[in-house]
Please model this.
Amino acid sequence: MLPLQAHCHRGLGTLYATAGRWGQARTALSIAIDLYCAMGMTFWLLQAEAALGQVSGAGVAGQA
Model:
């Protein structure tokens, strides 16, 4: 069930980012990253890290 949980957090993170809820997006993506890392799911780990990078950059630019 952990892979499903990680995928759900990643999906929630991208959904929150689409809605402009940057803090919640970062939180959900960080949880997904932790889960992927713990399970050694490197492909999805890279995807979640890339999404977090986009959210972090957009969140900072969006707040300015």
About this structure: Residues 20 and 62 are 8 Å apart (CA to CA). The chain has one domain: 2-63. The radius of gyration is 11 Å. The mean pLDDT is 91.
